[in-house]
Amino acid sequence: MLVKKPTINDVARAAQVSKRTVSRVLNGSASVGEETRKIIEKIIADLNYQPDKQARGLASSRSYFIGIIYDNPDALYIDQVQRGLLDVCSRQGYELVVHPCKYDSPSLVEDCLAFVGRSKLDGVIVLPPVSESKVLAAALREEGHPYVRMASLDLDDHTNIVVSDDRTGVRQMAAHLVGLGHRDIGFITGPMHYHSSTERFEGFCGALKDLGLPIPEGRIAHGKNNYQSGLECAHTLLAGEGRPTAIFANTDEMAAAVLKVAHELGIKVPEELSVCGFDDNILASRIIPALTTIRRPVTDMASLAAQKIISAIEDKEEKAIRVNYIVQPSLIIRESTSQWPGSE
Predict the structure, then answer these.
(1) pTM
(2) Total domain count for the chain?
(3) Assuming Cys at both sites, which of 67, 117, 252, 296 could form a disulfide with 121, CB separation 3.0 to 4.6 Å?
(4) One matching Pfam family, short form (predicted)?
């Protein structure tokens, strides 16, 4: 036997108000008194009433679709983002539409604008490195499309951005390695035309310089934030006898590649080589040895981005401004780093 789903008429009848009043509550209108609003919200919860999104969209000229624009090969990162977005969007009645693209494409802006129009989106959340495009942000602004950028640098008005303070995060890692007695440290960068890569590289090198330990050019290998480039960079840094005692990689994926190369070369981690990364994705705690890393709170960033974009869509700019826009990464110490012998 089919159970009849509650309708807006059922809510209105139980609350002894009009359908228009229930609709106003659903759409966040300020024209409904607080006491009446609370009564209607309780009845909605008691009845487990789920508004029909298509009907809501027709009534409010909204689609209740939010887009995600990204060019990031790390599926674990995308999963973390979606978890944070869905946690907020599902409670507010919004659906997500994803759009992978190529950051370096000459048609990036045209492609993204076409996606927004074709999907009839109410707003978009742009992930790094695409979020670093000033041209795309300007185009979205000019076309009147609400957007929020997730980035490693403060690139926009605070209503339109959520920032991970990567520079401060990597300084924690530099202090950790030096505190363990490491004085010969290698670094695997990400693509240096990405702000996130330059923030981490400059932050780490700056911290070491402050401690009197600048990284020589021979201890820097340039990666692409993926596993394959991590393998290549690890071979570069570990070839020969004069290898570093520690390696910090721009991502956990490249740090995992360093662990593999070290194993192949018979280098014990962490006894003969400390290895650390950045992100704290799900693999970091599951590989052997478990990876010391900087935890970037991606899910928290995505939740903040969702709060901001929904506030922007619903013309609540003051609320969007109040939503925090900076998150702080934190050092997670595991088994892949240890005291350098003889330094105690």
Answers:
(1) 0.79
(2) 3
(3) 67
(4) LacI
